[in-house]
Amino acid sequence: MSVLYRLLKARQLVKNGHSFYVSSVPKVTEEHRLARREQIVAAARVCMNAEGFHKTTMADVIRESQLSAGAVYGYFKSKEEIVAAIAEDALSTVDELFENLLASDEPLTPLAALEATVDQVVRVAGAPAGDVTRIAVQAWAEALRNEEIREIAKGKYCKLRGHFLVIARRAQADGTLDPDVDPQHVAQVMFSMIPGFVLQRLLIGDVTPATYKAGLRALLRS
Amino acid sequence: MSVLYRLLKARQLVKNGHSFYVSSVPKVTEEHRLARREQIVAAARVCMNAEGFHKTTMADVIRESQLSAGAVYGYFKSKEEIVAAIAEDALSTVDELFENLLASDEPLTPLAALEATVDQVVRVAGAPAGDVTRIAVQAWAEALRNEEIREIAKGKYCKLRGHFLVIARRAQADGTLDPDVDPQHVAQVMFSMIPGFVLQRLLIGDVTPATYKAGLRALLRS
């Protein structure tokens, strides 16, 4: 696979008129590469939303992406790798959100962090390539049957929960949360609000950021 | 199907030596019927936990139950009906829990109701026929692709959320929750704690009732 990958990459570079050598790849090629990767991930999201996570094959993704099999395999060796990329893309926007939240000097409450996260989930779900939260719910089920998906989900969700852990510690330092509680336990409960919101939004359909944030404000200490 | 069902039922009653007429079925037959139903539901849980929700067929359930196809179809016409029964059995224990909670004259907080529910989830998950929460997660995914499963999930979860709604109203009456908030919105957030707990328990594995309840106590108003 590695030799094939390098050959394909070299061919692509030659075809694009850029240098054959990876060490001197100009910036435009890296942009091109990112755009192609995005094209494949978007195609996978379309397939998974239309056909279901389980039924979607690499062949479906290749067809939808309108790239060659070699091009797609040059970026992703398996459906599992694409799933990891979909999760990474969706959650990287949440990473940025938490960076911004933590950059503020204002006292930061778990409530404020959760309100911002719920808004972000709905923004991410509304992306043109289809609702990524529908793929997430299917990935949860798949994770129970497929060890590789489980490891991906576990890694991504531990990272997301890690953000809530930082918020809990910050709230303890700011005096908005009991300093004697294990912040890991608080992070577990904060994390729950996100899949709980996603699930009700998809299965019941009457939950919006406005209703949910009103519930959060009533229920959580502030 | 209805005629076949009645024929099978009649045959079973004759074989058991009881009256042919449904209107005069003695109590032992109703018990026998409930035991058979339980046998089928338990077989389905075993299959779904071993093979996955999606892959499990009626043929698998029939084989695992060690009953005839006619007997099984006499109770459940489809996998969807069995799923509804699994959900009903699991959630009926939660119905009882809420009845008991609401029967008390003590002031009732959302926190206390959630703590009791988390304990109950773990009790139900530990049943001998296999962890029903693993089936629930798979049913969430299936609900996005199968309208019938979606309606079952929606109905069951609206009922569970209805319990939290009653708790929220009671807490407003008791003065432990802001009376100006829409209790439906509070119920949405309370409901979230359950799938959020289940998911972390299955995918990450480090969440226990003890850690989660500690997080709830720190985060929720009391």
Automatic annotation (TrEMBL), chains A, B:
InterPro entries: BetI_C (IPR039538), DNA-bd_HTH_TetR-type_CS (IPR023772), Homeodomain-like_sf (IPR009057), HTH-type_TetR-like_transc_reg (IPR050109), HTH_TetR (IPR001647), Tet_transcr_reg_TetR-rel_C_sf (IPR036271)
Keywords attached to this entry: DNA-binding, Repressor, Transcription, Transcription regulation
DNA-binding region: 57-76
Keyword Cell wall biogenesis/degradation among UniProt keywords: no
GO molecular function: DNA-binding transcription factor activity; transcription cis-regulatory region binding
Keyword Transmembrane helix: no
SUPFAM superfamilies listed in its UniProt record: Homeodomain-like, Tetracyclin repressor-like, C-terminal domain
Ranges for domain HTH tetR-type: 34-94
Gene3D superfamilies: Homeodomain-like, Tetracycline Repressor, domain 2
Name of protein: TetR family transcriptional regulator
Species of origin: Kribbella rubisoli
